[in-house]
Amino acid sequence: MKILVLGCKGQLGRCLNDQLVNTDHEVIYTSRGQIDIADFEVTKSKILEFSPDIIINATAYTAVDKAEEDQKTTNLINHLAVKNIADICNQLECWLIHVSTDYVFDGNSNVPYKEDDETNPHSAYGETKLQGELAIQASGCKYIIIRTAWVFSEYGNNFLKTMLRLGVERDELSIVGDQIGCPTYAQDIAKAILVILEKLSNSEDLQGVYHYCGKNVCSWFEFASQIFSCLSIYGVNSPQKLRPIATSGFPTIAKRPSYSVLSCEKINEKFEIETSNLDVAINSVLSKIIAD
Question: Going by DSSP bridges, is the β-strand pair 26-30/2-6 parallel, antiparallel, or unpaired?
Fold first, then answer.
């Protein structure tokens, strides 16, 4: 199959490159320099020229707090540009695999969110990501929407890498302990997409929204504790003390969901995709970062 990856320099884009490199697919990787999805006409022209069988959209405006201050750009990237891509996919009759977020929910649940649960975003980021989802569904294109959460990897900026930096700089860290989620390794998301790719060519009844996240439910504080516990075997400095704090003690411009646990039953049932193990994922990231 001919696959076009949009956003190849982000966390997921780079992990997709790692996972697709040993397949027989013809893969075209594009960054903003090659295709700026904010330019609708150029995007359409280049995608029509490539004429892919599948587009994987790994682009997004993900700066959650900045999104509140620049809602026009956030809406452009997360909603309007996604609508344009979906319309192009419909014209080409190609599949669109699009990555979305737990932020489409309000975080007020106490049981894992399922795909058909009511959405109720409380941030510009979450609202524009939801509008992007709805635009895809209204476009008529063949689509897979994957909602995920708390993404980390050896690439880019993420919570794990922030903890590594702060752990060297400080003896004591205060970490939010009342937000609950499932940390998700971007390499595992990429592997899940590979499984999906192999099945799409044989069936169109797989279209829909799916949740994929790590299987370990924890707070940011517990996630940090696990990172530093794994880090100890590498002989790298860790803070002497970790302290859990309430969200109110760490105010942010955008509201974060207090509960971001996603049910992955549907993706397991349809594609036989298992959720990832946090300890294994953390150690995989640490080994790669420290080896560099």
Answer: parallel
Active site residue 234: no
- Mean predicted confidence (pLDDT) in 212-241: 90
Please, are residues 176 and 150 in contact by the beta-carbon 8 Å criterion? no
Neighbours of 233 (CB within 10 A): 10
Residue of 29, 103, 113, 125 with catalytic role: 125
- Would you say the pTM of this structure is higher than 0.85? yes
* pLDDT tens-digit series, residues 76-101: 999 999 999 999 999 999 999 999 99
**Burial of 190: CB neighbours in 10 Å, binned 0-12, 13-18, 19+:** buried
Domain 2-156+183-216+262-276 fold is Rossmann fold (3.40.50)
